[in-house]
Amino acid sequence: MTATVPYVDGVVSADQVRATAASIRSMQEPSGAIPWTNGQHADAWNHVEAAMGLLVGGEVEAAERAYRWAPTQQGADGSWPMKIVDGHVTDARGDSNFSAYLAVGLWHHWLVRRDLGFVRELWPSVRAGLDWVVSLQVPFGGILWTPSEELCLLTGGSSIYQSLRAGVALADLLGEPQPEWELTGGRLGHALRNHRDLFADKSTFSMDWYYPVLGGAVRGQAAFELVEERWDRYVVPGLGVRCVDTNPWVTGAETCELVLALDAIGDHDRALVLLADMQRLRAADGGYWTGWVYDDPAYPNDNPNVFWPEEQTTFTAAAVILAVDALGERYGASTPGSGIMRGTSLAPDFPELALECGCPSESVAPTH
């Protein structure tokens, strides 16, 4: 068991975190797969996030079964498919963000458990996944979403940036340097800081707002400016964060991800308020409803103030646990993995070398 189950005083107790981790375990399939909710599909990214939540919540055996399931679904090229339902692939397209994220999960497991044997066991899958991901980089620095779609996603690229830093940290731990990952990370980080307009326009989604901060590519004053830029557009006082700016719908996962982004840049007070605000989504058994439709005069035909959709999702529960762990370091108790989104234990930021976007290498001052 992990030595400490985290908590945040007055917001989420350690016992509540244990119950939330148990709610994730209750939806885990016998194979080890963790679907979004009972009967729905699994994907590698949300599956890994759920495994991280299990580990932090003290469900070590369930977390490790989840991690060991991941390589069984990996393609020969190193990619993971979009959707897997009850062991059957229902969308075989390889997703670059999904295929990178095991690196973050495995590094997180190392921080919490210090089990080098487990790292060595899963390292070949991490290496194959990241090798496939870096092959999808385009000249401006973005990473293709899939090999068959000519678009790069800002949210996905921001997460891949964190995954590459985790991958390089794992490579250094094992004495297997990966210079190509570092070059890819340098180009990607430059794009996330300086060429966000070249990514596909998904600006109605709040994730495209905060993910460059959450993934670690944007830090310092630039991060604070980016957060302020669309705060009023997405944050609903007393409720949380809208998933999209077109609907009166706040979602727990996005709210907790913003909590993690704010924690990463030291904006702890607002992070704590948001974590407290989203507790209205907590269910009696410790699970979390996905979102809340609130009363907004602009949407008179919507049924206000209801949980929607009527499902408790593993990715929401995991995001809550990770947010509690991050803030617990300051406001309660935390695990050794609490800084995973701050990136302080990851490989250093990558230098902007061999750029192919037309900007001179290292001549553009980093904004982080």
CA-based gyration radius:
19 Å
What distance lies between the first and last C-alpha atoms, to the nearest angstrom?
Answer: 37 Å
Q: Approximately how much helix is present in the residues?
A: 40-55%
Oligomer: single chain
Average pLDDT, all residues: 95
Instruction: Please identify the structural class as seen in this structure.
Output: alpha+beta
| Element order: H for helix, E for strand | EHHHEEHHHEEHHHHHEEEHHEEHE
Biggest beta sheet summary: 5 strands, antiparallel
Share of β-strand residues: 5-15%
Total of helices: 14
Features:
single chain; 368 residues; alpha+beta; 5-stranded antiparallel β-sheet; two-stranded antiparallel sheet; 14 helices; disordered C terminus
What order do the helices and strands come in, and which of them pair?
Elements: E1 7-8, H1 14-27, H2 44-56, H3 60-69, E2 81-85, E3 88-94, H4 96-100, H5 102-113, H6 116-134, E4 144-146, E5 149-152, H7 154-174, H8 179-194, H9 207-214, H10 220-229, H11 231-234, E6 235-236, E7 240-242, E8 249-251, H12 252-264, H13 268-277, E9 291-293, E10 306-307, H14 314-331, E11 332-333
Antiparallel strand pairs: 1-11, 2-3, 4-5, 6-7, 7-8, 8-9, 9-10
Helix pairs in contact: 1-2, 1-14, 2-3, 2-5, 2-14, 5-6, 5-7, 6-7, 7-8, 7-9, 9-12, 12-13, 12-14, 13-14
